[in-house]
Design a protein that fits this description.
This protein is of the alpha/beta class and 249 residues long. The chain has a domain at 1-73 and 188-249: P-loop containing nucleotide triphosphate hydrolases (Rossmann fold). The chain contains seven helices and ten strands. Helix 3 runs antiparallel to helix 4 (136-149). The protein binds adenosine-5'-triphosphate and magnesium ion. Residues 45-46, 158 line the site of magnesium ion. Adenosine-5'-triphosphate binds next to strand 2 and helix 1. GO terms for molecular function: ATP binding; ATP hydrolysis activity. This is NitT/TauT family transport system ATP-binding protein. InterPro entries: AAA+_ATPase, ABC_transporter-like_ATP-bd, ABC_transporter-like_CS, ABC_transporter_ATP-bind, P-loop_NTPase.
């Protein structure tokens, strides 16, 4: 499993008016840790995630995953976006096996894994369906099954449930909790939603507005396995109050 080690990382988007998006980010995510990045719109959460994914390069500082500098995207870092970017002409099964198949991995191995992940995400009955025939929540589950089939050691999730209705969102959070409970991959999860961050993460990092910095590190002292009803508990509410206060400053 891979840890993520970020030090003095900065990012300026070039252009007529350069945008200083990230400033001196220091962040260490342990192997198997679930981290949530919380912060206001435009503070650089997606930028940071895209840099870990290898979609964007740094303007300064260092970024290591599993001890190696990130220079490009790779299958050991799976990404889930707000909208699952599925191939519309491929059915669910073909979408899920596309990555490992293209990478030339052993067929028996990825097919078994794809079956397991479609089972876990409740999609076994929909393997032949095309993306257009699925609901938003189902498409997002395909996106998650696909990334899990890749067997990535690091999962990078950018508001993966942000476009879903409240009910579906809760179901997806529950699903992710139970999947992660078994896999224990390293996760960086971007969200605006304090409840979601507390429910899912071991550690929450609150970012401040542009240029984005890590303002606070907040460990979540709630034991696992977790279920949705912890949202009504005292520890949860106290933590939420504390985070709200820190976000106001
Ligand atoms: N490709 C780009 N080119 C130029 N500027 C960019 C680019 N991508 C992001 N930015 C700028 O960098 C800053 C951080 O953007 P980013 O998308 O990382 O924020 P965010 O925290 O993910 O916001 P949100 O919560 O709204 O998704 C913003 O000011 C944005 O305008
Ligand atoms: Mg974003």
């Amino acid at each position: 499993m891979s840890d993520i080690s970020i030090s003095q990382l900065s990012k300026t988007y070039p252009g007529a008016t350069p945008v200083h998006a990230l400033d001196n980010i220091d962040l260490h995510v342990q192997a198997g840790e679930f981290v949530a990045l919380l912060g206001p719109s435009g503070c650089g959460k997606s930028t940071l995630l895209n840099m870990i994914a290898g979609f964007e390069s740094a303007s300064g500082g260092s970024l290591l995953v599993g001890g190696k500098p990130v220079t490009r995207p790779g299958p050991e870092r799976g990404v889930v976006f707000q909208e699952a970017a599925l191939f519309p002409w491929l059915n669910v099964w073909e979408n899920v096996i596309f990555g490992p198949k293209t990478a030339g991995l052993p067929k028996a191995q990825y097919e078994q894994r794809a079956k397991d992940m479609l089972e876990i995400t409740g999609l076994s009955a929909f393997t032949k369906a095309l993306p257009v025939q699925l609901s938003g929540g189902m498409r997002q589950r395909v996106g998650i099954a696909r990334v899990l089939t890749l067997g990535s050691q690091v999962l990078l999730m950018d508001e993966p449930f942000g476009a879903l209705d409240a009910q579906t969102r809760l179901t997806m959070q529950e699903l992710l909790l139970s999947v992660w409970q078994n896999l224990r991959t390293t996760v960086v999860f971007v969200t605006h939603d304090i409840d979601e961050a507390i429910l899912l993460a071991d550690t929450i990092y609150v970012m401040s507005a542009r240029p984005g910095r890590i303002a606070t590190r907040i460990p979540v002292p709630i034991e696992r396995p977790r279920t949705l009803d912890l949202i009504t508990g005292d520890v949860f509410n106290e933590l939420k109050r504390d985070i709200l206060q820190k976000m106001r400053h």
